[in-house]
Amino acid sequence: MFQDAVLGKSRLAFQRLGVALPFLVILGLVATAAPTLLEPSNIGQVLRQSSIVGVMALGMTFVLISGRVDLSIGSMLSLITMITIDLHDRVGPGVAVIAALGVGLGIGIVNGILVGFLRLNALIATLAMLSLLQGATMIYSNGRDLTVAAPGETWFAFIGRGQVYGIAVPILIFLGLAALLGFLLHKTSYGRRVFAVGGNETTSAFSGLRAPLIVASTYVISGLTTAVAALIIGSRVMGAQTNTGVGYEFEVIAAVALGGTSFLGGSGSIAGSVIGVVILAFLQNGLLQMGLPYYLQWIVSWVIIILAVWTDAASKRKKVLV
Amino acid sequence: MSAVSEPIDGLGRDSTNWAATALTAIGLWARRYPVWIFLAAALVFFSLKSPHFLSVFNLSNILLQAAFFGFLSIGLTLLIISRNIDLTVGSVAGLAACLAVGLQPSLGLWLPIAIGLGAGLAIGLLNGFLVERAGIDSFIVTLAGMIGIKGLAFAFAGEESISASIDLFNELGALRIGRIHAIALLFLALLAIGHYVLKHTKYGRETYAIGGNRTAAVNAGVRVSRHVIIGFAISGLLAAFCGIAMAANMGAAMPAFGLGYEGWAIAAVVLGGTKLSGGSGRIVNTLGGVLLLASLRNGLNMIHVPAYYVLVTIGGALILALFFDTQFSRKPRQG
Amino acid sequence: MTNSATQPTDDVILSASGISKSFPGVRALDDVSFTLRKGEVHALCGENGAGKSTLMKILAGVYQPDGGVIRYDGRDVALTDPLAAKQLGILLIHQELSLVPELSVAENIFLGSLPLKRFGRVDGARLRADTRQALDRLGCDFGPDDIVSTLSIARQQLVEIARAVAFQSSIVIFDEPTASLTQQEADHLFQTIRRLSESGVTTVYISHKMREIFEISDRITVLRDGKVSGGLTTRQSNEDEVTRLMIGRDLDHYFIRAERQEGAELLRVEGLTSGPVRDISFNVHRGEIVGLYGLVGSGRTEIAEAIFGIRPLESGTLSWEGEVRSIRSPRDAIALGIGLVPEDRKHQGLVLGLGGSDNLALPNLGRVSRLGVIASGLEGLLFEDYRKRLSISTAGPKQPVLTLSGGNQQKIVIAKWLAVAPKLLILDEPTRGVDVGAKAEIHGLIAKLAESGLAVIVISSEMPEIIGVSHRILTIADGRLTGEIAESEFSEDRLIAAVTGHVWADETPRPQAA
Amino acid sequence: MRNILLTVTALATLVVSPLAASAEPKPRGDITVGLAFDLVNPWAAAYDAAFKKTAGELGIKIVVLDSQGDVPRQSNNLRDLVAQQVDAIVLLPNNKKAVIPAVREAHDAGIPIVLSNGRVDESGEKYVVAWTGPDHHLTGFRSGELLAEALGGKGRVVILTGTPGTESSIERERGCRDALAKHPGIEVLDSQPTDWKREKAQTVTEALISRFGDKIDGICANDDGISLGALSAIDAAVVSGRVQADHIKVTSGAAFAEGYQTIKKGGSFYGSVLMPPEQDAALALTTAVRIIDGETVPKSQFYETPAFSRANIDQTPIPNF
Fold first, then answer.
1. Is CB count within 10 Å lower at the N or C end of chain B?
2. Which residues of B are less than 8 Å from A305 in CB distance?
3. Is residue C205 domain-resident?
4. pLDDT of B16-42, one tens digit each?
5. Domains of chain C: total
6. Number of domains in chain A
7. Do chain C and D touch: 3 or more Cβ pairs under 8 angstroms?
């Protein structure tokens, strides 16, 4: 706890490097085994693939810094994608996009009320929401997958498939949101409040901050980023499946944790999360390109994540008094 | 607090008072441990709604289903009280099940079981080591482990399920003592041991100390690191128990056994009133949480809630239970 | 049992020589030597950061020295861990109570060495009996099975002391034991220490409070910057000498009372009732310093919290500048111009992981930001301003406050509230755990604030402090206002009289183990 | 290996049900049939709908229990159905071995079990009254054959599977491999899971194209969703010039409506295999009711899942999911 607290801000730069460093070494090794990994076209592809987890990781960073966690994002992703695709053909892409953001906002508010205002345990409350939203997805779609009837004729395709100056739109959305939310988290008084509430809720309340509201707001951000991720995935696939988001919550949390955001709240950064996301995506892609069977990919990811976090923890310890 | 008794005559007086005192005591207890109220409410509700719910067959059924993830909750209660968490338990269950069954053709019955349990223990030790000696947060250690250990199970067993080749294994899994499954009894026995350990042994009392005030425990000379590592080992061992018990009951094993059970197990522990912030909790109440979730799942099946709505209902019920829990069990501020 | 000696003898029980200890970047102890005699009370003084705590942690086995020799009872010893120290008979009672809230008194006392029966079962009967014996010897009014979280802080401290009795420790180290105690509780503690001393136990007493040191100790060792700056016999020394050794210069005064320039009434509290506090009425004027004196648990903190909007009012009114206002949250209070320096600095006053400037900015985010964006220039300027005005020493505005001394931490809390430009500042135990130098600075600051027209409420359980700074003292006992004492009538006896009847419930003698 | 099965196709093995009941048939309104399966994909949703529809037509009551892909939970659900004393159970086993003890318990409780769309291991067959529907292995086999046909019996192939460890994924992959193994000119480069997700199928295919470049000639996918994900990746690779248009051929098991339309348009998506849930559900439920009525039913009512490509698409009905 001590270390996390101390390193919360002052040594963030170092800390981030701490995680990235062993990864770069490992990535180098992976790249020798799979030379195609570092081809420019592949790099672009991996970055684009990482954008869905990435966008959600941005929201999760806020939630974790405020000292909470959001496990509901996987199911939320499924539900919002389903609604978006359904409305796309029934009402039109514009309404679909607005509805997606609206639903993300709404679920974020519900999560926020449960965890922020009613003070329910975040882990279990959002686990419950995970189940609830999965059910809602099934009810909404009646268990069916949905697809866009004419994927070639909608501007909606631009979100997930478009390119601007040769850069895929999802990457632009990811990096743009990262810049925006990074600014919000690190440069505004709101962001400062999030750090304060996660660092010490009582002190925040004593300082006149509305801790419940701030906690709730992080869930709203998480809901909105999940909605954006749903737009990307919906547009990329031009369809929605009931299992679209299954398991995403753990991938997102792993990426954010890798980026140095503490589970105890009060420390972390958007830049760290971006690095964590990108690292994880390259690792997954590299292992796949090495031709490892899936189970070996899982085992190797396990070992590498532990090694990276361990190296990081060890380097932190050396730098800190006692 | 005040007794509601109105003594009518000398004869009934004692008993009324006694009853009132008992009621008050139950009321107080229920306020502290509301999970039993939820459980009672669920049992009453489902009994009224389904004629089959309260049958001996079904109740022993619920107990068996509870045991499946209940094993995991026992170890997790210990760990959560000491302010740690173990997300690998589901994957460990799958791995242990595969080892115990997959090695039967070459090693017989007992050695593979021992190897399965040993693997759980070893992974627990590894998790504990990483948390304590490498100083990584247990959530991250076990989140990464969750995937990796699943990989180990697939690497060992392949994708397909493996049949148990030794009949005794299956017979043990299907064994009933009276009307109750031996596995359920094993679960209850381990739970009782867990209760004993937490309540009456040095290890148990020190568990509370570590979760409640780690510095104090260190200063008092408690070997905290060793303690926590042992805690993870216990959790791993119990997870292995869970997997092997499931394999015995189903006469087969596959890596996907126990997948996602960590969520159920943790939810049961939290519903039982154990706080994730550590330092407090009781294992009997974890039993309440486990039974509540098992009854809920079984009960929704018995009253024919449409499949999609089961997910919604369980999610909603969990939130409601959590809500009432925070309303009921607000402890007075410490003086 | 060793209860023969009545006077401190010259037997050396422990000698430490040439102790050094470095942490990365800091030389915490540099060639420190001193001796402890059997049955004496040995005070250890020094400003925060002088190395007192490090030295004590070495004696308690928490840290290992880089160099030096410790001889205990005539032989060299290696204190490799807390258990080893405990087994030798050295017990450290930490400044922050080292108890587990959810465990019983007995379990806390014997934590780490619980007596066992067969099957690893904790021997409850023996545990209880041993605990009972220790508690009785200290004259405690609670039992072995009481859960620690239900006990008052003073009683929790007794639980720690009971450890020393239970383990028949020969050296007990107290690290600022009276920080959270009222005068009466402290007096009771001194009786306990004397009792221990009479039975041959050596006490090491660390404190910032000169009065206590001179009341209780036999000898004094002063540390400065990791070195021993002096060893004194208490009876042949005085406060000034100790202070000089501690800070390396003369300290002019302890208390500078503000010139009383009483202005208009600012706050009027009428019939305030909230939780344990009942029917409190008083007022505060601009430029006035009102002292609020009462025992821990008397309700003084709750009064502050009610005024500041943290606790809901059950009844009563608050008038601000003559108008009845409702304050439902700290936001409302801050908007009116009220600041609260809370009792528990680490949990209520600071976000330890954030830097000084971040903490300072917390209630002032509006001031340091433009359209919600933090202007780091403004933030830095604000911090720099207060860093100078309050002479806060930090490595920089972003240094996490966790790593600062208690005095500097407290100054940041005060600065944070001064920066909101309050009309009323409530300070709850403003100098708890703060060293002598910083203490004087804080007292001086309070005076200056009042002189500039601010209304101040100071809550304290340190009688010299409350008498030294206040213009008027209100006494609280059992949640009620028991008296109002004007400056001309200040005396310790008056204060004690106003809050007695609510002191130790166990003042009445208890049966004691022979 | 299981090619013998092909030869026995549709040959209803005339094993008489052991439960040739003697009592008079129950009135339809009193009959309750349980359905135990995983309601996790559109195919299952369509099955569910068809099951309900058939139940309505037959005038019987049903209890539908979903085990969310969790193997132990399916055993729990079977026991829950036994506790409710349903008259028969239709089971889509999510594991062919682990479900056997629970099947046996139902059998011992006198509840007939009809397996649908999947089998249990030999050791469990004696507890099962009848088996209906198609077979995942054959579905996979057909998709493999189709790919071999598309490639002219020669080329390099990757297999995209569902979620590792799920029965349908295991069996379809094995079927596909069995079919491809018959063509010595075909080499399987790799097999990777996609968790039945289109987006993941796309990501995996992108990585595979990066790795193998234009070496990939064909993709054999476990269902149309995976195929469509892979097609998105192929399309992008064609646009960026890394892969020739229409070079890679894709076939899959379990045709979806969208896949059907895509095949019809032509291009990389060569063909798929029909797995109509309607007939499946209707057959299973009718068989269960016939057993309750005391009729003798064939032990096995297997039917062929036809493969189709653009060539014969007009003779193939459109899947409704």
1. N
2. 140, 144
3. yes
4. 677 788 878 777 777 778 889 899 999
5. 2
6. 1
7. no
Residue A100: inside a domain: yes
| C94, C96, C113 member nearest B221 (Cβ) | C113
- C 37-66 residues with CB below 8 A of A? none
Encode pLDDT of B244-300 as tens digits: 999 999 999 999 999 889 999 999 999 998 988 888 899 999 999 999 999 999 999
Tokens of D123: 């050791």
Distance in Å, alpha carbon of C294 to nearest chain B alpha carbon: 16
Count of CB atoms situated within 10 Å of the CB of A35: 11
In a domain, C505, yes or no: no
Range of the domain at A89: 38-246
Q: Are residues C426 and C395 part of one domain?
A: yes
Which domain range does residue C121 map to?
4-247
Cα dihedral across residues B241, B244, B250, B254: positive or negative: positive
Using the Cβ of C355 and the Cβ atoms of chain A, whether some distance falls under 8 Å is answered with: yes
With an 8 Å CB cutoff and a minimum of 3 pairs, decide whether chains C and A touch.
yes
Any domain includes A288? no
Per residue, the 3-state secondary structure of D265-285, as one string, reads HCCCEEEEECCCHHHHHHHHH
Judge whether C201 and C170 are in contact, CB under 8 Å: yes
Identify the domain boundary among C217, C247, C277: C247
For residues C36 and C138, state if they share a domain. yes
CATH of domain D136-273: 3.40.50.2300
Q: Is residue C256 part of a domain?
A: no
**Is A66 part of a structural domain of the chain?**
yes
CB contact under 8 A, B58 and D64: no
Q: Is C505 exposed, middle or buried (0-12, 13-18, 19+ CB in 10 A)?
A: exposed
Enumerate residues 340 to 399 of chain C having a beta carbon within 8 A of any beta carbon in chain B: none
Does residue C310 sit at the A interface (CB-CB below 8 Å)?
Answer: yes
Query: Is there a common fold for D2-134+276-305 and D136-273?
Result: yes
Domain finish residue from C221, C247, C273: C247
Q: Using 50, 70 and 90 to split pLDDT, how confident is the model at C176?
A: confident
Mean pLDDT within C398-411: 85
Q: Is C199's Cβ below 8 Å from some Cβ in B?
A: no
CATH of residue C100's domain is 3.40.50.300
State whether B250 and D79 contact (CB < 8 Å). Answer: no
Domains and CATH numbers, chain B: 35-329 (1.10.3470)
Measured between beta carbons, which residues in chain A are less than 8 angstroms from residue D240? 41
- The phi, psi pair for C66, rounded to 5°, reads -75, -30
Q: Is B280 on the interface with C (CB under 8 A)?
A: yes
* Touching chains, B (3+ CB pairs < 8 A): A, C, D
Q: Note the pTM of the prediction, 2 decimals.
A: 0.88
Q: What fold is seen in the domain D2-134+276-305?
A: Rossmann fold (3.40.50)
Asked if the Cβ–Cβ distance from A257 to B143 is below 8 Å, we say: yes
Q: What is the mean pLDDT of residues D249-267?
A: 90
- Report ipTM (2 d.p.): 0.86
Cβ contact D192–A294 (<8 Å): yes
CA distance C110 to C122: 11
Half-sphere exposure of D20 (CA within 13 A, CB side): 8
The answer to whether the CB atoms of B266 and A128 lie below 8 A apart is no
In a domain, A251, yes or no: no
Same domain, C342 and C226: no
Please, what's the b/e burial string for A272-288 (b: 16 or more CB within 10 A of its CB; e: otherwise)? bbbbbbbbbbbbbbbbb
Contacts C340 to A, Cβ<8 Å = 206
Q: What is the bridge-based pairing of β-strands D32-37 and D88-91?
A: parallel
Give the 3-state secondary structure of residue D159. strand
C373-374/C26-37 β-pairing: unpaired
Tell me if B219 and C150 make a contact (CB, 8 A cut-off). no
Residues C126, C269, single domain; the answer is: no
Chain D touched by A36 (CB under 8 Å): yes
**pLDDT, position B333:** 34
Neighbours of chain C (3+ CB pairs under 8 A): A, B
- Whether D14 has a pLDDT exceeding 60, the answer reads no
Asked if A301 lies within 8 A of B148 by C-beta distance, the reply is yes
